[in-house]
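Could someone model zinc ion with this protein?
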Amino acid sequence: MKSFHEYSLEEIFFELGIYNEIELDLATPKEVSYTIGADVGGPGSSRSVPTDVKIRKSDDFNRVLSVLFNGKIESKDKDKVYHLCPTCGIQNSFVVESGTGLDLSSYEPFKTNSSTATRDEYREMVNSYAKNRLEKMIETLFAGKSLRYRSVTIKCTYNEEHRFDFYFLLKRETCEDGSKFYFAKVGQYPSFADFKVIETIKYRSILKSLNFESEYKRAQGLYSAGIGIGAFVYLRRILEALVLQAFEKAQTENVISQDEYEYDEIKEAHSDEKRKKRRTFESKIRLLKDYLPKMLVDNAYTYGIISKGLHELTEDECITYFPALLKGIELILEQMHHIREKERLENEVQKEMNKIKTAMNTKT
Ligand SMILES: [Zn+2]
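Reply:
Sure, complex below.
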């Protein structure tokens, strides 16, 4: 599973479903460094008091600060979020506004009164100081509570009035061996589906022809509400409809028969006899390779899994795999849209050509 800091801002704002909790690693420092000071007890002594102790917070911690507390977002090109603005209707950049920053700078520097410890013992002291200081930072982050809510607004750079609000939650769970931390989106306006509406225009004609516009919206709605298996069921229906439509075309062209589509012939071991076996979804995709977008054929195995019994996947697995599979399906729909557009244009051109031909023939 992906770590929190590996999620792009686009994924956090536009793809993360509501109540989908991502575990955070806040308590492990990324790095603890210090300078070895002058030897205590003369040159060559094994005792040296550490100075200039520096602690680097984990990548997850920095990501939380950058998203929720206007922390500086690491690289320059990551300063903005890119997505379709539902109001503009086109791809735009957004600025993230998350209120005031969190001041984590004022902490007691590392101090020790001991002048008799060994270097190893001093290292231990620095490590426990680091642990303690991180714990204080976490306390500040959570403002002493176990749940902390933050709202974040993103603004379209084309028009500042295009503002969209997101609500996030930080959660701390105390367990036997310390604490566990989670990040979740708990609300947004406009809804997940609203952000998607514009995107679907590109392949709406395909969804319409399949009669699957509402299935598509439902899959997203369920996913954003944290219902993974349910969302998968709708994705499966869309996929099955796409494959069936491809088969119908192949059948009209007399390339593949109903029987071939339904059954596969398996050669029996140790004999020349062939046995009929119901075709799996994966095998249907491969059979229709000339009629389906390459993306679907290349990933027949993965898409075969969606169609397999959903009982083989857990709710969490469905939530985790959903965005990638949905993107794949959108790509397939887009490819189909292009194929159809091309066919339509070719037909139009052909008609025009025929007209010209007829006109020329009547002339001679
Ligand atoms: Zn806009």
